[in-house]
Specification:
The chain is an alpha+beta fold. 22% of the residues lie in helices and 30% in strands. The strands form 2 sheets. Strands 4-1-6-5 form a 4-stranded mixed beta sheet. The longest helix is centred in the middle third of the chain and has 13 residues, at 55-67. It is globular.
């Protein structure tokens, strides 16, 4: 009989696919501190969902805290469930939301967390050596949605 695998408590997060009118995504470069996870990596803005908080509300709060942005619209896009392979694995649930942002909004953003922020096309983001792969996955799913999420043609008879 195999022993049950031990996990850290599940972590639930909300993340933004901040996309502008030209199809570029606003990403956060994490701080370069040895004591944080994924130092110096590019990732989506967002963070932990607090007890009793809805994911969309958590994301609005995180966007205010991280860049001083009041989202005009938030639309649920996808949820990823992962097991992070730490020494003691941790289950993650990340709810991704599409959040439109205008190019004209960028000068008013105030970075409250992380080293920097920047706009990336999906093609450029794929080339970045330090990008959170789960965030990249969600961005590619969103950017390629027209090709990925179409109803298949009817199966030919026979």
């Amino acid at each position: 009989m195999m022993a049950r695998r031990k996990y850290q408590p599940q972590r639930r997060s909300a993340a933004a696919l901040l996309v502008n009118e030209t199809g570029r995504y606003l990403m956060q470069q994490r701080d370069d501190f040895a004591w944080i996870n994924y130092p110096d990596f590019w990732g989506s803005f967002g963070g932990a969902v607090e007890h009793g908080e809805r994911p969309a509300d958590a994301l609005r709060r995180e966007l205010r805290e991280e860049i001083g942005y009041e989202a005009r619209a938030i639309t649920a896009f996808t949820t990823l469930r992962l097991v992070m392979p730490y020494a003691v694995p941790r289950r993650e649930r990340i709810d991704y939301f599409v959040v439109p942002i205008r190019e004209a909004d960028l000068p008013g953003l105030v970075l409250g967390e992380g080293r920097a922020f920047g706009l990336f096309t999906p093609e450029k983001l794929v080339q970045e050596p330090k990008v959170a792969p789960w965030d990249l996955c969600a961005i590619l799913m969103h950017a390629r949605a027209d090709a990925l999420f179409v109803a298949p043609a009817p199966r030919p008879p026979g």
